[in-house]
């Protein structure tokens, strides 16, 4: 699949909404046939982009592929996290943590209270 060129709205061909009314759908589709897409403006502001079904299908395919890549990356991270977490779920890890928590804490002879602690 060819990657569609990314263009900002101001670089695309434009037609005012009044031309859409005046020229009709066929007029708009002639511009789309030439350039693949056209921005319809209202009082100089972009309101809609009309694009060819080919461009739409390309954009949709790219979006789906991007979603799949992101999901695959999240799946890898999730598996890595689960593997690292397994270590903490062993009996040895539990016993070590209990031992640490049962030991008295050495504050070097100081007493800490409230916000100091």
Q: What is the helix fraction of residues, given as a range?
A: 55-70%
Estimated structural class: alpha+beta
Radius of gyration: 31 Å
N/C terminus separation: 61 Å
Low-confidence regions: none
The SSE string, one letter per element, is EHEEHH
Q: Provide the spatial order of strands within the biggest beta sheet.
A: 1-2-3
How would you characterize the largest beta sheet? 3 strands, mixed
Count, helices: 3
Approximate shape: elongated
> Which band does the percent of strand residues land in?
5-15%
Query: How many domains in all?
Result: 2
Strand segment count:
3
The overall pLDDT average reads: 87
In short:
Belongs to the phD/YefM antitoxin family. With 117 residues, the chain is an alpha+beta fold. The chain is 57% helix and 14% strand.
Main traits of this protein?
2 domains; 3-stranded mixed sheet; elongated; single chain; 3 helices; 14% strand; alpha+beta; YefM-like fold; 3 strands; 117 residues
Provide a descriptive summary of the structure in words.
By secondary structure, the protein is an alpha+beta fold. The chain has two domains: 44 residues, YefM-like fold; 46 residues. Helices cover 57% and strands 14% of the residues. The chain contains three helices and three strands. It has a three-stranded mixed beta sheet with strand order 1-2-3. It is elongated and about 90 Å long. The relative contact order is 0.09. Belongs to the phD/YefM antitoxin family. InterPro entries: YefM-like_sf. This is Type II toxin-antitoxin system prevent-host-death family antitoxin. It comes from Thermomonas beijingensis.
């Amino acid at each position: 699949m060819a990657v569609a060129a990314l263009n900002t709205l101001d670089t695309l061909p434009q037609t005012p909404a009044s031309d859409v009314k005046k020229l009709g759908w066929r007029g708009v589709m002639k511009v789309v046939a030439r350039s693949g897409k056209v921005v319809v403006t209202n009082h100089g502001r972009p309101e809609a982009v009309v694009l060819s079904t080919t461009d739409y299908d390309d954009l949709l395919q790219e979006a789906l592929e991007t979603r799949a890549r992101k999901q695959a990356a999240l799946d890898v991270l999730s598996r890595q996290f689960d593997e690292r977490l397994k270590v903490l779920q062993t009996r040895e890890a539990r016993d070590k943590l209990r031992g640490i928590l049962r030991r008295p804490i050495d504050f070097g002879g100081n007493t800490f209270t409230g916000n100091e602690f």
